[in-house]
Design goal:
The complex is a heterodimer of chains A (881) and B (269).
Chain A lengths: L1 H19 L1 H22 L1 E10 L10 E6 L5 E6 L5 E7 L5 E6 L6 E5 L4 E2 L2 E3 L16 E4 L2 E5 H4 L7 H5 L5 E3 L6 E3 L2 E2 L2 E4 L10 H6 L5 E7 L18 E6 L7 E12 L3 E11 L3 E10 L39 H4 L1 E14 L4 E25 L5 E26 L3 E21 L3 E22 L5 E12 L2 E8 L8 E22 L2 E17 L4 E18 L3 E6 L2 E8 L6 E6 L2 E6 L5 E12 L3 H4 L4 E3 L2 E6 L5 E14 L4 E23 L2 E25 L6 E17 L2 E19 L5 E15 L2 E2 L3 E13 L4 E15 L2 E15 L4 E8 L6 E8 L2 E8 L4 E8 L3
Parallel strand pairs in A: 1-7, 1-8, 14-16, 36-39, 38-40
Antiparallel strand pairs in A: 1-4, 2-3, 2-5, 5-6, 9-10, 10-15, 11-12, 12-13, 15-16, 17-18, 17-50, 18-19, 19-20, 20-21, 21-22, 21-49, 22-23, 23-24, 24-25, 24-26, 25-27, 26-27, 27-28, 28-29, 29-30, 29-31, 30-33, 31-32, 33-34, 34-37, 35-36, 37-38, 38-39, 39-40, 40-41, 41-42, 42-43, 42-44, 44-45, 45-46, ...
Chain B lengths: L1 H15 L5 E19 L4 E14 L2 E6 H11 L3 H9 L4 H8 L4 E6 L4 E6 L6 E6 L6 E9 L2 E10 L2 E8 L17 E7 L4 E17 L9 H13 L1 H6 L25
Classes of the chains: A mainly beta (881), B alpha+beta (269).
């Protein structure tokens, strides 16, 4: 009490001085406060002291802090930081109530001792406890770059509406994600590896993880530029592709995470959706398990994004693509026109068997039934302004059962790379289609397929940067097929038929290579022997084709300061023989390729590349007389189907992680010369696609570009894609040679911005124009426009609404446009951090049909597809965390 | 301006290669601060000078430095000298230099065992370092509480070397460190600024790590704190002469103006 009074008096005295001169004030106040302090000291001072130590080891904790509080209050009255000997000392004045003395240190649990306000000694023994950072916006800078790594901090790219990894990947400048397959590109080039915590669990099927890994489990997304996945080759040979690595938050590491359980029901018709997905990424084991089913139009197919990266010598031919057109996909959000009943099950596991080795298996099973209703009108330009028009209505049912799996062992250390991948796949596909035209047509296609393959690769490296390399890839594929067509009444030159064939293929590709380095130049000599045996057995007609290749490939690569160059000179001798109905070939083929990449600085990269390649065809070229569908027949009357291709490309990449600006542009020219020319014979509804002898040249030029930037303002991000291409070729249509060219242009800008507190708008527009020129007569431009938006509104703390819409304006004939508006809305209610309910109202305007047109070589085609009607879906989700 | 920055950057590069290194400790916590400075005290114009001033906290040592300068350096290190010159002289890269050129070039190493601070600077105008005892800051903790991105922070004030500072610290991260020379509060300093708001550090992110704290400037000649402040003040008040004295031939067609602000430790004359 006395202290308070004295201070009041003293301050009154100070008041007097303020009026005299401000300068004196400070001095006097300081003196007066000092006096006051001394008085206090004399009155009632309590001293608290002691040491703080580690409870387990007894180590004195220098730097620990001890704070004094009113009981059960966070407000600090006084504090002390422990000195080198772990000692603390706190002095206070005049306290009457009991107090809390708290000791805290990073990595230890806080300890609280309740004390009386008298001088005393208290020693603390703190128990060790892991320090966990809060889930907080205090996060890393957006993009960091060091050496060949570009690192994106996930938190900086996450918005409230984001749920899974793909949502944020697409926002990262430089990174593009294919929404359907989950495929990832960096600076326009597909990535060659997808790692989670540096392990390759999913291989090419990584879309499953990126589409199901919750955003809050992701800490950083790293891009390794020019990634060489084989460690033994890391400073020897480089790659032009990048890899992506997902780093998880401390909380998610080693724990089960994933979308957990989702169950939904809806109307009308009766809709269901159920999903379970769980994954765990621990240091020694990684697992991903999922089961999904729905009839809501959600595509749950597991895509392999590395499927195109195939063994060089094996010409892949997709048998089902041999038949056309059974199922086509409109250029609209797939879920709108996809009528399905799908089940997918997948289990994936990776064990680390050693420091640098792992064993992995992946098994996928899919059972799917889809229906599609569509109508198409095709106009065939027959020359001399004459046009044949044919309209057909399709109802297609597709049943597919597919199981695939692989077992892979990989050892990847600095000295040796070893990998063996054993894969098998079985597929039962049955497509029934009813076509209504002038007649009623029933088509049935069965494609039961089976494939087994083994890929073996070993690379050893010596201390002198010498490498020895052996690869052997072997594959057996069996794909019997059955196409039946019944037509009533028979009209338009169409007839019933049944076509049954058994197709079997065995391929083997073997490579032996030796490489060494002379300073910065790496020289590689590769010798290979490949063979491929194909059989097409249609009962009355049998085709056999045997292909042998002996190849020798010297290659050079140079990696200096700012220049990377690679030159490959594959020369091979090929021998093709077989049954009498197969054209033979025997001769040398040269396929050189050269690429220069020049980086004047960190930001820019310029590249130029050129290559020549040849394609010697496959058994499918020779199988003459085969029906592709009820009205299209393939006839081969040509010479040996050799195609020579020359490609040149030039491109520029720009990246600026500091400004979050990434861009690329490239232009390429292609010249394809084939020994044969296609002829189309239009005979009523019947089409004969005939291959006849005669050189045909196709030239194409295409340019594309991309630019993407993140702004600090209003959490804005913007993207722009563009593409221009022109191709020229020729075809014989009803015995008339018709040169034609196709021009296409596409511009696709988009942005995302925070409009009001927490509300996010995402908008993109795509403008395209197509034009065909047939026999030097320019057809009119076909325009189409597509606008997409999503708007996210956080209504309350636990409730949010997402509205999304599409506007499409498609040209269906010269002066006729069709406008289409599609809209969906979803409301979500988060009951707890783990449990969420959602109600979706899809296709609010109940748009039932989608139509568009396109030019394809010498046709004008206009399509219309049936869309899913308005429906409501209620879902509940329990997350794993 | 561009030329000066080019020059500065090349000086940095040159000296970077000369220095030997010493590992002091392993940091367990990494904090990044945004440093904002009032670059014109008359118009009250503020500028973000560095978005990534990094504080590494270890058991015995802590280090405070510009990570942007560090990463600019690591980007430059991946290039050849020709490439660097190409990049630095190419107009398209002015942004790069503008961004990095203005980064703070000092580093503060705090030895908590011996209670010593070593500050190094590679642009003063040459490499220098000075040593002092960890300065005692008489913090007063106030009852005001504020939330910074989920961390409950309490206000504290102190007067230090000619300026009055306000700091916000959080007991949820119980360490005694803060940006620059700030220390001694019972929790990490999340934000600190002087009452006139000439200098401001604010935490932008925090990360648990295991990273070496490396002392990179072993060979730097030692000067006194007073001399160092003198140089810094001279650099602000006479930028052109400062540049002339940096030991390189400088040809400029303009004269940089004196800066309308003072050093942080303004009572050291």
């Amino acid at each position: 009490m006395t202290t308070k009074l004295s201070s009041v008096n003293l301050f009154c005295a100070a008041d007097f001085f303020i009026n005299l001169h401000k300068k004196y004030l400070k001095k006097y106040t300081v003196i007066l406060l000092l006096l006051q302090a001394i008085c206090c000291d004399a009155n009632a001072q309590a001293v608290f002291s002691g040491v703080v130590k580690n409870a387990r080891t007894g180590e004195l904790l220098s730097g620990a802090n001890v704070t004094l509080h009113q009981t059960d209050s966070d407000n600090i009255i006084a504090w002390s930081i422990c000195n080198n000997k772990g000692e603390y000392l706190i002095k206070i004045n005049g306290q009457s109530d009991s107090l809390d003395l708290r000791a805290a240190y990073l990595g230890y649990a806080e300890q609280i001792i309740r004390i009386a306000p008298q001088s005393q000694t208290n020693n603390f023994s703190l128990a060790e406890k892991e320090f966990v950072l809060k889930e907080s916006k205090i996060t890393a800078p957006k993009i960091r770059a060091y050496g060949d790594t570009v690192s994106y901090s996930a938190g900086q790219f996450t918005r409230e509406q984001d749920r899974v990894l793909t949502d944020i990947l697409d926002r990262m400048p430089g990174v593009e994600v294919n929404k359907e397959t989950g495929g990832i590109k960096y600076q326009g080039t597909p990535v060659n590896r997808f790692y989670v915590e540096n392990q390759n669990l999913m291989d090419g099927r990584y879309g499953e993880v990126s589409k199901n890994l919750p955003v809050d489990a992701v800490k950083t997304v790293e891009i390794f530029e020019n990634h060489q996945p084989v460690r033994a080759l890391q400073d020897i040979s480089f790659s032009e592709q990048a890899a992506i690595n997902i780093k998880l938050t401390d909380k998610a590491k080693g724990k089960w995470t994933g979308n957990g359980f989702t169950a939904g029901l809806g109307l009308s018709p009766l809709l269901w959706r159920a999903e379970f997905s769980a994954m765990r990424f621990a240091p020694d084991i990684q697992t991903y398990v999922t089961y999904k089913t729905n009839n809501t139009g959600q595509d749950i197919k597991i895509y392999n994004n590395f499927a195109s990266i195939q063994i060089i010598m094996l010409n892949e031919t997709n048998t089902s693509a041999f038949y056309s057109p059974f199922i086509s996909s409109p250029n609209i959000d797939k879920k709108r026109s996809f009528f399905n009943r799908s089940h997918v099950f997948s289990i994936n596991n990776l064990w680390k068997t050693g420091k640098e080795s792992n064993l992995r298996f992946n098994i996928d099973y899919r059972n799917e039934e889809t229906e599609q209703e569509s109508a198409q009108t095709t106009k065939y330009f027959l020359g001399n302004d004459s046009v044949y028009t044919y309209s057909e209505k399709y109802e297609v049912n597709n049943y597919q059962n597919k199981i695939s799996g692989n077992l892979t062992y990989t050892k990847n250390d600095a000295r040796m790379f070893f990998e063996n991948k054993l894969s098998a796949e079985a597929d039962w596909q049955k497509i029934n289609s009813t076509v209504t035209s002038n007649s009623n047509i029933n088509q049935r296609l069965r494609l039961p397929g089976f494939e087994i393959s083994d890929e073996f690769k070993i690379i050893a490296r010596t201390a002198k940067k010498r490498t020895y390399h052996f690869t052997s890839n072997n594959k057996f594929n069996s794909q019997p097929q059955e196409l039946l067509s019944s037509i009533s009444p028979q009209a338009n030159n169409l007839a019933d038929f049944s076509q049954i064939a058994d197709i079997k293929t065995f391929t083997s590709a073997n490579i032996l290579a030796f490489g060494h380095s002379i300073k910065k130049v790496n020289v590689n000599y590769m010798a290979g022997y490949d063979f491929r045996i194909d059989g097409y057995d249609a009962g009355n007609e049998i085709f056999r084709r045997n292909e042998h290749k002996i190849d020798f490939t010297p290659s050079l690569s140079y990696q200096g300061g700012r220049l990377r160059t690679s030159l490959q000179l594959p020369l091979y001798y090929a021998n093709i023989s077989g049954s009498d109905n197969i054209d033979g070939f025997s001769g040398l083929v040269f396929e050189p390729s050269l690429r220069f990449t020049y980086s004047p600085g960190y930001f820019w990269e310029f590249y130029a590349s050129g290559n020549l390649s040849s394609d010697l065809g496959s058994i499918y070229d020779a199988v003459s007389g085969v029906m592709k569908n009820y009205r299209t027949q393939y006839v081969f009357d040509g010479a040996f189907p050799r195609t020579d291709k020359a490609v040149a490309a030039f491109g520029i990449n720009y990246k600026n992680p500091i400004k979050a600006l990434f861009a690329y542009t490239s232009i390429s020219y292609g010249n394809i010369t084939s020994a044969n020319t296609g002829e189309q014979i239009i005979n009523g509804a019947q089409i004969i696609n005939r291959i006849i002898e005669g050189k045909n040249k196709t030239e194409s030029v295409s340019a594309n570009g991309y630019i993407s930037k993140i702004f600090d303002w209003q959490r804005c991000s913007a993207k722009l894609n563009w593409n221009i291409s022109e191709s020229r070729s020729q075809q014989i249509q009803n015995s008339m040679l018709m040169p034609f060219s196709n021009f296409s242009f596409l511009l696709n800008p988009g942005f995302e911005i925070e409009t009001f507190a927490g509300q996010m708008l995402n908008y993109s527009i795509s403008i395209s124009a197509l034009r065909s020129t047939v026999q030097n007569i320019k057809q009119p431009f076909m325009h189409s426009l597509k606008q997409n938006f999503t708007y996210y509104i956080p209504v309350a703390k636990n409730i949010n609404i997402m509205i999304s819409g599409e506007h499409l304006r498609n040209q269906v004939s010269v002066n006729q446009y069709v406008n289409m508006f599609l809209m969906d809305a979803t409301a979500r209610y988060k009951i707890s951090p783990k449990f969420e309910l959602a109600l979706s109202w899809n296709n609010i305007f109940d748009t039932r049909e989608y139509s568009y047109s396109s030019y394809n070589d010498l046709y004008y085609m206009s399509y219309s597809y049936k869309l899913r009607p308005m429906n409501i879906l209620f879902t509940a989700n329990v997350q794993l965390r | 301006m561009k030329k000066i920055l080019i020059l500065t950057a090349s000086i940095v590069l040159f000296y970077m290669q000369l220095n030997s290194q010493e590992t002091l400790d392993t940091a367990y916590l990494e904090c990044s601060y945004t440093f904002t400075q009032m670059i014109d005290t008359i118009t009250q114009k503020k500028s973000v000078r560095d978005v990534d001033m990094r504080l590494l906290i270890g058991a015995k040592y802590s280090k405070f430095y510009s990570h942007r300068l560090f990463s600019a350096d690591s980007i430059l290190k991946t290039m050849t000298t020709d490439e660097q010159m190409f990049m630095l002289s190419n107009g398209g890269f002015t942004d790069f230099i503008n961004k990095y050129g203005s980064s703070e070039a000092y580093k503060v190493y705090t030895n908590h065992i011996e209670n010593k601070i070593t500050q190094t600077d590679m642009r003063a105008p040459k490499n220098v370092l000075y040593k002092e005892s960890v300065p005692k800051q008489n913090w007063k903790i106030l009852s005001e509480i504020k939330d910074f991105d989920g961390y409950k922070c309490q206000k504290a004030t102190c007067t230090f070397r000619g300026r009055d500072y306000v700091a916000w610290f959080t007991r949820e991260i119980p360490v005694k460190e803060g940006p620059w020379k700030f220390n001694g509060l019972p929790g990490l300093i999340v934000k600190v600024h002087d009452t006139q708001e000439h200098y401001d550090f604010e935490l932008s992110y925090i990360n648990k790590i295991r990273k070496k704290i490396i002392f990179e400037e072993k060979n730097y000649p030692e000067i006194t704190l007073k001399d160092y402040i003198k140089v810094c003040r001279y650099k602000i008040q006479h930028p052109l002469e400062y540049l002339m004295n940096s030991g390189k031939n400088v040809r400029t067609t303009f004269s940089p103006d004196p800066k309308p602000y003072d050093v942080m430790e303004r009572d050291i004359k």
